[in-house]
Design goal:
4-stranded antiparallel sheet, 1 helix, 205 residues, mainly beta, 40% strand
């Protein structure tokens, strides 16, 4: 996850961004910033943990602020763990002076029982977690960057719930030359780990 700018460029003035991290079945989430450089005292990243999300608006309720960050920090020096399975990341900047921004990774503690309703989840893939938001996926597909593939589930489809799959060649669970795939739960707004299989292996089906 990043502020949205390219690694070689600066973030936009007047940014007001929000991301939700909600891995299926997570009991806690650990965040680690791999880079962090903001205008000190004017631009901020705020990390909140949530008790839940409103069904339609995805508004965080039971919000508790974990940290509010600004300035520059050494790579790998910033990390924290949320004790809930939902994290809200807010990024706000003023109208002048931009810096390189931030990049971060996250991991979640997930119980196998939490994913038991999804018949397609293998125990060996429980640790796999989609690190990209829909915005990133759609923009990459539109630019034909080759990072993602997406399609319909066909006979496996559960209408209005499980309808599409997304495969990422940049996923931590992907194999060389192949992608790792997720099925999107439209009701819970979650990417559920599926399998390796967008390339020659075709092991998803």
């Amino acid at each position: 996850m990043s502020d949205g700018s390219a690694l070689s460029s600066l973030y936009e003035d007047g940014s007001d961004c929000r991301w939700i991290i909600q891995p299926p079945g997570a009991s806690s989430i650990t965040l680690n910033f791999t880079s962090f450089a903001l205008e000190a005292g004017y631009d901020f990243v705020t990390i909140n943990q949530c008790l839940g999300l409103a069904a339609k608006s995805l508004e965080c309720f039971g919000r508790a602020e974990l940290v509010k960050l600004t300035g520059s920090h050494r790579p790998g020096s910033l990390g924290l763990t949320a004790s809930s399975g939902i994290v809200e990341v807010l990024f706000k900047t003023d109208e002048s002076v931009a810096y390189p921004g931030f990049t971060m990774t996250w991991t979640a503690n997930i119980s196998s029982s939490a994913l038991s309703r999804y018949w397609f989840v293998s125990s060996k893939n429980l640790h796999c977690q989609m690190q990209h938001a829909w915005k990133d996926i759609i923009s990459s597909l539109a630019a034909n960057l080759g990072t993602f593939k997406m399609g319909g589930l066909g006979q496996l489809m559960v209408r209005r719930e499980l309808e599409v799959w997304v495969c990422s060649y940049a996923d931590a669970c992907a194999l060389p030359g192949d992608a790792f795939c997720y099925i999107y739960d439209e009701q819970k707004k979650l990417f559920i780990p599926w399998c390796v299989g967008a390339g020659k292996r075709k092991s998803c089906v």
